[in-house]
Design goal:
By secondary structure, the protein is of the alpha+beta class. It has two helices and four strands. It is 17% helix and 20% strand. The structure holds iron/sulfur cluster (2 copies). One iron/sulfur cluster binds next to helix 2.
C-alpha cells in the first residue's frame, strides 16, 4: 500500500524521494507526489525521514 502525502504539510524537502529504494515518490513544484504506487514495497522509509508528518499509511 503506497503512502498518502498531505500536500498541505509537505515542505518539498525531497528526503522521502532520497529514502525510497524504488522511486515511488517525486517532488514537483515543491510538493511530493506518489508517481509509481504499484512499485511501493511498504518499507516505510519515506515516513521515517519525513519531518513534517506529511506521509501516512492508511490502515
Ligand atoms: S519528506 Fe515529507 S516534507 Fe519532505 S518532500 Fe517528502 S513528504 Fe514532503
Ligand atoms: S514505503 Fe518504501 S517503497 Fe513505499 S513509497 Fe515509502 S520509501 Fe518508497
Amino acid at each position: 500500500m503506497p503512502p498518502k502525502i498531505d500536500q498541505e504539510k509537505c515542505s518539498g524537502c525531497g528526503e522521502c524521494v532520497n529514502a525510497c529504494p524504488v522511486s515511488v515518490i517525486e517532488v514537483n513544484n515543491k510538493k511530493a507526489k506518489v508517481v509509481k504506487p504499484d512499485d511501493c514495497v511498504d518499507c516505510r522509509a519515506c515516513e521515517a525521514v519525513c519531518t513534517t508528518g506529511a506521509i501516512t499509511f492508511p490502515e
